[in-house]
């Protein structure tokens, strides 16, 4: 079995609808390219028990676990101490991080900002080239900021250190002359032939009236993906459709 990852989105603001999460697509795409596809995403509140229990659960089930959110200076930024609790280690000042942030903030390095210099014992900082305050990795858990620009910068710093699997490969056919109900049985039969692949059917309806369906074969075995894609092409033809390779134009 290949390597798999999970993502924990932490923050009351996401659950309330106040903040729209823009990190999922970025992480899913980039982890797929590294051969560590996302298999589960969970959104949880800023509640100590929930964070601790979710980290304990996920780090046992997945090869790599990523969290976003809750590592700033405010009272509800509790991800870091919760991860320390999940690993059973102290949450304490990380000397190099403390010195770096003290130099950055100077006289403004107050108690709230000093919280960002505390990491679980044994954690390795993830550099933050945007705003300096780092994320961190401990075991197979990688804790990053929720702000998309900062999270992406942290991920690019972290990515070279991750153990890679086989990259996820995909092929897509779309047609404007058939709809989902017409090809559903045939697509299910192809899925049964390739149980390790992720086959998807995605209807589309454009503002200019164009309608149809895109069929996607995705997986980490290139030969199987290509064979499934050929079967999808044949299915569309047999149903009287006109198969066009690639995603439908916007």
TrEMBL record:
InterPro entries: CinA (IPR050101), FLAD1_M (IPR056596), MoaB/Mog-like_dom_sf (IPR036425), MoaB/Mog_dom (IPR001453). CDD domains: cinA (cd00885). Residues 6-165 form the MoaB/Mog domain. It comes from the Bacteria. This is Molybdenum cofactor biosynthesis protein.
């Amino acid at each position: 079995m290949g390597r798999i990852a999970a993502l924990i989105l932490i923050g009351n603001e996401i659950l309330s609808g106040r903040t729209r999460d823009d990190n999922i697509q970025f992480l899913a795409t980039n982890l797929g390219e590294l051969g560590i596809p996302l298999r589960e995403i969970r959104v949880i509140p800023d509640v100590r028990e929930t964070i601790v229990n979710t980290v304990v659960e996920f780090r046992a089930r997945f090869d790599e676990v990523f969290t976003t959110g809750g590592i700033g200076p405010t009272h509800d930024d509790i991800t870091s101490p919760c991860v320390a609790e999940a690993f059973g280690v102290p949450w304490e000042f990380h000397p190099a991080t403390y010195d770096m942030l003290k130099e950055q903030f100077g006289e403004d390095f107050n108690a709230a900002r000093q919280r960002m210099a505390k990491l679980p014992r044994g954690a390795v900082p993830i550099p933050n080239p945007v705003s300096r305050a780092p994320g961190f990795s401990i075991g197979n858990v990688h804790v990053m900021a929720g702000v998309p620009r900062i999270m992406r910068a942290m991920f690019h710093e972290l990515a070279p250190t991750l153990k890679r699997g086989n990259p996820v490969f995909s092929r897509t056919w779309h047609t404007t002359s058939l709809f989902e109900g017409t090809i559903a049985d045939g697509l299910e039969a192809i899925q049964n032939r390739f149980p390790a692949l992720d086959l998807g059917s995605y209807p589309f309806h454009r503002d200019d009236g164009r309608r149809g369906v895109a069929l996607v074969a995705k997986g980490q075995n290139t030969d199987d993906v290509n064979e499934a894609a050929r079967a999808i092409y044949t299915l569309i033809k047999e149903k009287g459709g006109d198969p066009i390779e690639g995603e439908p134009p916007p």
